[in-house]
Structure formats: structure tokens, C-alpha cells
Inverse folding.
């Protein structure tokens, strides 16, 4: 198995309530193993979160290795002086650039600490659109980003294909909404959060559902929590070396008229002995192509789903607009089968 650095960090504490995530093996999904495929589909319907065990799959091992390399790179990137990072910040792009939020905690020099992220568009990496100027550290690592994007997309395309089969949709329906050479909101995200005390207000403001299709997440410290749908309890997702955490986003809930689930989650300070460390995560968000209209699909099991009152009159918006309004506009919040639960801060 590819080396990961989890064992070099303080371990995730025992005895905390953790999320009941099933583990789906990528190699077995690749070989269309019927019971693995069924377990995957069940996880997508019941919780919308699962571990993707990448061991024993060439593609999986490449994804894990890429994630480790990008984890090392993101730490170098976030260690750059603030002015250097800000040069490629929000003045260039509202979303696909370096972004930060200042915390009300200061470092020993009196400088406010930041939670930071950097978003890099799939279309930028693959050359489907003009490239946004970026720091040399990012541009010199384009081959690494490119192989990571292609590998994540290969895994996502396989998962979409498997879902398509279980949902009994016409062949290629989900694939036709997620063509890699068509513009979409897919992106790689680096995140960094400094150690900080528990803050109820900040934590609840960060509760969200992802609003795209399928998210592939790597983190090395605890702190990610999901709210269990059965008892509403917030529980930790323990990082597992060699596995990604995969979750579904609201677009797939919309397309399938709520057959699939996107579960609410949030990030809290890392627990126990991990609490004093800088926390990073590496996320690949996939989203429908920009021009795709965000409404229920026709065909297969989706046709058996009940129609919501007023569904026919719902305004038709495309994926690009959906993302912008979910991130910054009037559609901010948590999307559930009951509708949109408004929240003040951007979801992801
Ligand atoms: O940092 C994490 O573990 C999760 C991040 C997340 O949920 C997101 O960026 O949407
Ligand atoms: Fe998320």
C-alpha cells in the first residue's frame, strides 16, 4: 500500500462517538462486484457518506499517493507569506483563488490567525478554459494537479456509472451531465485551519451539505463531523489511512428526487491529542456541467418518486447559477428532502 503520513501524527482518540460509515472497496467496484456495488448504492441512499477504500486498486493507490503529495504541497503553500498568497486572492476571482477568514485569535506577534483555502478549477488544470494567474508553487506542480484531477474524475465517473445502473436510468444519463471536457464547477480545494477553541456560533455557521455531485475528501486529523439522520447526534468521521471519505452533494439529490442523500456535516477543532495541530484537508468537488438544468431527471426509479407540491412551477436554473446562488446568494443553506434550511454562511 502507498505510504500515508497518518502514523506520524497524534492518533485520533479512542472512545469518541464516530460515524457509522461503511467502507466501499474501489477495486471491487471497478470489477463490478455485485455485493460491493449494492453496498455502495445502499450507502448513497441511506447516509450519503462512506469510506472509499483505495487499497488494492491501481487507480485508488494513485489517488492516495496524489493526495499525500498535495497534502505536502498545501502545507508549503499556506506557509508562504500572506502577501504572496493574497496576490492570487479574491481580487482575481471570488471563488477560484486564495481565500481566508480572520479568526478572533492572534499569533504571538499579534497577527490574527486565519482559516484559509485555495480552490483550483478542474477546467483550469485541464486547459478547458483560460488559466487564472497562480503562484509559481501551483503552476510548477500542474502535472501533479492534472493527474489528481484525472484520477479523482475516473473514480467519480465509475461511481456515477454504478449509480446510473442502480437507478435504472437510460445508459449514460449521469455521465452526459458530467463530461470532463465540458465546463463545470469541479475543483480541487486545499484547506488549512489553525488550532482554535470550540466556538458554537462559528461551528454551527459552518454546517452544510455539499451542493455538487460527488465529493472525494482526504483529511489527516479528526474534526469532520456528520449529523446522524437516525438520532440527530453529531459524530466524528475518523480518518482512515488508505481510504478517502466520499459524500454525495445536493445535485444528485435533486436529480434523483431524493432517492440519494446528501448528509449535513461540519468541521470542529481536531479532538484530543490532535487539538494543537494545524488541520488540513484536500477536497475534490465534482459538479454537473455549467449548462445542466437543476431538476429531477426522467426515467428509471426517479419516475416512481413522489412529486413535491409546486415542483412544476419551480424556477429552472442551471448548475452554474445554482452553485453561485448556493455559495453567495439566496439559496445558501442546507438542502434536505424537506427543502432548503437557510444558513447564513456559504455552503460548499
Ligand atoms: O475538512 C474537512 O474534513 C471537510 C471539509 C468539507 O466538508 C468541505 O470543504 O466541504
Ligand atoms: Fe463539505
Amino acid at each position: 500500500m502507498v505510504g500515508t503520513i497518518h502514523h506520524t501524527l497524534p492518533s485520533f482518540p479512542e472512545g469518541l462517538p464516530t460515524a457509522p460509515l461503511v467502507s466501499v472497496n474501489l477495486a471491487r467496484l471497478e470489477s463490478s462486484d455485485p455485493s460491493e456495488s449494492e453496498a455502495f448504492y445502499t450507502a448513497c441512499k441511506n447516509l450519503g457518506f462512506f469510506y472509499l477504500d483505495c487499497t488494492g486498486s491501481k487507480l485508488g493507490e494513485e489517488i492516495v499517493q496524489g493526495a499525500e503529495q498535495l497534502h505536502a504541497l498545501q502545507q508549503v503553500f499556506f506557509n508562504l507569506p500572506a502577501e504572496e498568497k493574497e496576490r492570487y486572492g479574491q481580487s482575481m476571482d471570488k471563488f477560484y483563488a486564495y481565500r481566508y477568514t480572520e479568526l478572533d485569535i492572534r499569533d504571538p506577534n499579534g497577527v490574527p490567525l486565519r482559516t484559509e483555502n485555495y480552490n483550483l478549477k478542474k477546467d483550469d488544470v485541464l486547459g478547458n478554459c483560460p488559466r487564472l494567474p497562480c503562484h509559481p508553487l501551483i503552476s510548477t506542480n500542474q502535472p501533479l494537479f492534472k493527474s489528481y484531477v484525472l484520477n479523482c474524475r475516473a473514480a467519480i465517473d465509475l461511481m456515477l456509472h454504478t449509480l446510473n445502473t442502480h437507478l435504472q436510468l437510460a445508459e449514460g444519463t449521469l455521465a452526459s451531465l458530467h463530461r470532463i471536457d465540458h465546463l463545470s464547477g469541479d475543483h480541487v480545494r486545499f484547506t488549512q485551519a489553525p488550532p482554535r477553541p470550540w466556538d458554537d456560533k462559528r461551528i454551527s455557521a459552518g454546517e452544510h451539505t455539499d451542493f455538487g455531485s460527488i465529493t472525494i475528501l482526504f483529511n489527516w486529523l479528526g474534526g469532520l463531523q456528520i449529523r446522524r439522520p437516525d438520532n440527530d447526534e453529531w459524530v466524528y468521521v475518523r480518518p482512515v489511512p488508505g481510504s478517502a471519505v466520499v459524500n454525495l452533494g445536493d445535485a444528485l439529490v435533486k436529480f434523483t428526487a431524493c432517492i440519494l442523500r446528501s448528509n449535513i456535516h461540519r468541521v470542529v477543532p481536531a479532538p484530543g491529542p490532535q487539538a494543537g495541530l494545524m488541520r488540513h484537508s484536500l477536497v475534490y468537488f465534482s459538479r454537473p456541467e455549467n449548462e445542466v438544468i437543476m431538476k429531477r431527471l426522467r426515467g428509471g426509479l426517479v419516475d416512481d418518486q413522489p412529486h413535491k407540491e409546486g415542483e412544476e412551477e419551480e424556477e429552472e436554473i442551471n448548475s452554474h447559477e445554482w452553485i453561485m446562488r448556493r455559495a453567495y446568494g439566496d439559496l445558501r443553506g442546507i438542502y434536505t428532502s424537506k427543502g432548503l434550511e437557510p444558513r447564513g454562511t456559504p455552503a460548499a
Notes: The radius of gyration is 19 Å. The mean pLDDT is 94. The first helix runs from residue 26 to 30. Residues 21-341 form a domain with the Jelly Rolls fold (CATH 2.60.120.330).
